[in-house]
């Protein structure tokens, strides 16, 4: 794999992950560029979600190493990792009866201890997360009463309250209609722009990934096959190689990003 040449705090070095009966990641190496939005794409079962979980230390690697700030992530304390990196898994679940504020406050857990309970810093971080995601006026609403897009924003607010500058999102647009997908991705783009946080997210929609990401990574069979800017990655050759999909790639007439039209 050719290094992307940028600084990176989060890096995978020749990592392998095996599930019973089959390998999922095969000596995969990847740098997550600092301060950028990275979209990870690829066909079903190619290892996208497993890669994200391995980067967050939720899935152990059988070989290779994930490093955070130059140190092996598996040797770092869980609380230390959680203060630097937040992950939002697919379709997260919350207990019944939880309000938006209850959920977002849970993002402060890595900063709590027996000797350090709720503080002004915690309250400020929660308030900031609610404001950034536009949920301040919904703080006391039950999660169950929110729309799908609002609920996803609440989960992102919880991750933001964790006050990290590395954010991993596994298919954040799942189950959302197109307007809500665009709304959510625009929010992620804005958060990156306003706060400088590094974002890596798994997406299925190539055109939305090309529109909202700075950097794209295309996986197939547990390996990185293509990476670079959307214009470098989203080509007819890549779509054939990764998805076996004949297509035409044009420049989006509105935004200028590459846009895939299936044959």
From TrEMBL:
Keywords: ATP-binding, Cell membrane, Ion transport, Iron, Iron transport, Membrane, Nucleotide-binding, Transport
An individual GO BP term: iron ion transport
Subcellular location, principal: membrane
Signal peptide stretch: none
UniProt keyword Hydrolase present: no
Domain (ABC transporter): residue spans on this chain: 10-246
InterPro entries to which the protein is assigned, alphabetical: AAA+_ATPase, ABC_transporter-like_ATP-bd, ABC_transporter-like_CS, P-loop_NTPase, Siderophore_ABC-ATPase
UniProt name for this protein: ABC transporter ATP-binding protein
Provenance organism: Aquicoccus porphyridii
Source taxonomy: Bacteria, Pseudomonadati, Pseudomonadota, Alphaproteobacteria, Rhodobacterales
């Amino acid at each position: 794999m050719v290094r992307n040449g940028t600084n990176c705090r989060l890096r995978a070095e020749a990592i392998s992950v095996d599930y019973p009966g089959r390998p999922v990641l095969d000596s995969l190496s990847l740098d997550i560029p600092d301060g950028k939005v990275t979209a990870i794409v690829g066909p079903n079962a190619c290892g996208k979600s497993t890669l994200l979980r391995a980067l967050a230390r939720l899935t152990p690697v059988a070989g290779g190493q994930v490093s955070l700030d130059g140190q092996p992530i598996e040797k770092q304390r869980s609380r230390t990792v959680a203060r630097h990196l937040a992950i939002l898994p697919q379709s997260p679940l919350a207990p019944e009866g939880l309000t938006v504020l209850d959920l977002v406050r849970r993002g402060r857990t890595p900063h709590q201890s027996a000797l350090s309970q709720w503080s002004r810093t915690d309250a400020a971080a929660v308030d900031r997360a609610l404001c950034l995601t536009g949920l301040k006026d919904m703080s006391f609403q039950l999660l169950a009463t929110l729309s799908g897009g609002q609920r996803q924003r609440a989960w992102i607010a919880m991750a933001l309250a964790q006050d990290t500058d590395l954010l991993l999102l596994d298919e954040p647009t799942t189950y959302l209609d197109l307007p809500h997908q665009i709304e959510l991705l625009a929010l992620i783009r804005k958060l990156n722009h306003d706060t400088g946080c590094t974002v890596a997210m798994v997406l299925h929609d190539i055109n939305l990934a090309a529109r909202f990401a700075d950097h794209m990574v295309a996986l197939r069979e547990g390996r990185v096959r293509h990476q670079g800017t959307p214009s470098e990655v989203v080509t007819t050759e890549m779509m054939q190689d990764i998805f076996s999909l004949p297509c035409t790639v044009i420049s989006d007439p509105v935004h200028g990003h590459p846009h895939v039209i299936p044959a």
